[in-house]
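Dear colleague,

Following up on Tuesday's group meeting, I ran the structure prediction for the two-component complex that the binding team flagged. I've pasted the input sequences exactly as they went in, so you can double-check that nothing got truncated or mislabelled along the way. The structure tokens for the whole assembly follow below. Feel free to forward this to whoever is handling the docking comparison.

Inputs:
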Amino acid sequence: MLSRTAEHLYWMSRYMERAENIARFLDVANRTAMSAPGNPDAFWRSVLSIAGGEKAFNTRYGQASAVNVVSYTVLDSTNPSSIYAALRSTRENAHAVRSVIPNELWEATNATWLEVKSMDGPRLREQGLIAFCEWVRERSHVFRGIVDGVMLRDERYHFLRLGTALERADNTARLIGVPLGGFSPGGAGADPFGHTHWAVVLRSVSALKAYRTVYGDEPRQANALDMLIQKSSMPRSLLFCLNKTMETLDEIGPDLECTRMVGALQAKLHWSKMDELLSEGLKEFVSSFITFNNHISTQLHEDFLMSA
Amino acid sequence: MAFDEMKSSAGGVRAPYRAYENWLLSLPPDVLRRKHDEADMLFRRLGITFTVYGDQEGTERLIPFDTVPRIISASEWKHLSAGCCQRVRALNAFLKDLYHDQEILKAGIIPKQHVLGNAMFRPEMMGIDVARDVYTHIAGIDLVRTGENEFYVLEDNLRSPSGVSYMLENRAMMMRLFPDLFARHQVAPVDEYPDILIKNLRSVAPAKCKGDPNVVMMTPGYYNSAYFEHAFLAEQMGIELVEGRDMFVQDGLVWMRTTRGPKRVDVIYRRIDDEFMDPDAFNPDSALGVRGLLDAYRGGGVTLANAIGTGVADDKATYTYVPDMVKFYLGEEPILNNVPTWRLEREDDRKYVLEHLPELVVKEVQGAGGYGMLVGPTSTKAKIEEFRKVILANPSNYIAQPTLALSTVPTLVEQGIAPRHVDLRPYVLAGESVTLVPGGLTRVALTEGSLVVNSSQGGGTKDTWVLENDPC
């Protein structure tokens, strides 16, 4: 496969996953802000720290009100971290490889883009943020469904899978570290909303129900962290993403440097006790994970895409 | 009155259209329009579009598709296809001769200075042998009709003719929209096109190719207006769609960058003009090409389809000599006629043309896409005078032709179904053999009375049916 094709496939699935994750968190922030006590702006600000682009937001919008954050994160075409921009990039990458992906995948990606392109503020308000976020999630499900349902398990498929796994790991790590409404997770201070913080985080990755099944309890920090970091059966946990990445790399490049890097991190997450992982603090764990995850992405590029 | 392909018959409707007309009459009102809207929606969803340059959001437009087919009888097609293949055989023989012994120039059939001074003549190709002596592997021959038995070749497109994806997609769309029509007609299939094309491309592997040739499709990139077609054809043929930056030349061979390291490239079906193919040999600013490609090509390391330097054979002045080429190289009489053409470089011709501008069509010798032309009868006095000055500044850059009454075919427009002028571009494929699939791209001028069918000038397309058997 052409190196450039691999790159487009990788980014196509990364951007689709990104759009889904922004929508997921936006949805939960929206529902929570409606019911949480205190200052709802703090919730909205946390959306920015997940989605990115906080600096540009401060210059352009200032106050993190619901309207501002939603316009910036959903439809702002100049914000590279908006849902709009993520769907545009998904479609651009798909366009560049439309001759090698299933027609259904191209058509679905194109249809998603045409729909979001025709969306504007008034239409979004009429439809409602909740319905819109559901729609984005569904489009991502369709995307993954086509990939899983019809694609040949060759390199093309594997590069799509890599993009999804690495993007999802990045997102889950950000979620674990995000301060919500003034509460910094991992710290000694009590959750001012009782157990709301971890319920919100788990709900945004559709894992609250799963949590209850596993722990039979209301969300507590230690269990929530176990769920989000080390639970290998939870499809959005860090370890799950690393396992998927490793499986894929074993198929396409078992002897490469990127594979070694992923293997090292996977072993650490798999075998360490939680307090060993968090010995430097949760914030530090999260930021070093994100940095290492970025290094893996860079190394992938080196190993596969610069091969000539 | 222009010849109407459906209605111009003493006995009413012409035979090839009789079954269609019956069907049309039985149709409840508005069905065609609904189907038309459905087609638009589908084309947009499928991304069968061309890109409008200079738009940040990459606005993509549809080429208007008309749901009324253009129908050609089996016997008409036999004549047209024989004529097109004959023409392409002669043109390939001409290109080989021109870049080797130049017998046709020595025989005085084409003036030397016309060819050798032509900007599209590539001295780099002199003495270079290409696989199977094929220069133009894909040729689009533009045909027009003016009467029951009157067909003319309007021009030959020998560089990288586009539009064939619309021939294939229009057919797929018609079958989806009107399955019952295909039950009533025996329409010759066109879907073999990609299979024939890839077979031909494999058959022209270069001297240095060992084993199974690796054929690729080369595009300027996904921002190019015809990108859809490039991707479509690559997909249909199951070959890689590459850009210049995906390839490099080493030791006289061409390689592409893959996730498993460099891989040899043997045949490049390129949709990029000569000038952009190799910054070392042609336009040094080209970011689309591959350094050293021309040398690799000249050394037999790779085949380019179409070959470098075919442009010299498809400009509108060389066109006038094609019937002579048919006689000279093939010893045959031309099956298809040229449109009578005046060359403004000749004094007598120039005098006549300048006296008759309001009746004539004047075209730039190397123009394309309907730009830089004057259509006398539909132009204004002021515009004609303006164009006269342009011509006088460089007469040899122009040719003129009578304004042909292009045939019309019923077409769905705002007011209902009305006759609109059409042309036809069949695609001739050369390699192992010279052949074409039964069909082509019918372009239609959607504006009443207009003769300009180019999509860049608001033209649309129709599905083109060649009937397997003629109705008695």
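Residues 340-403 of chain B form a domain with the Dna Ligase; domain 1 fold (CATH 3.30.1490.270).

Cheers,
M.
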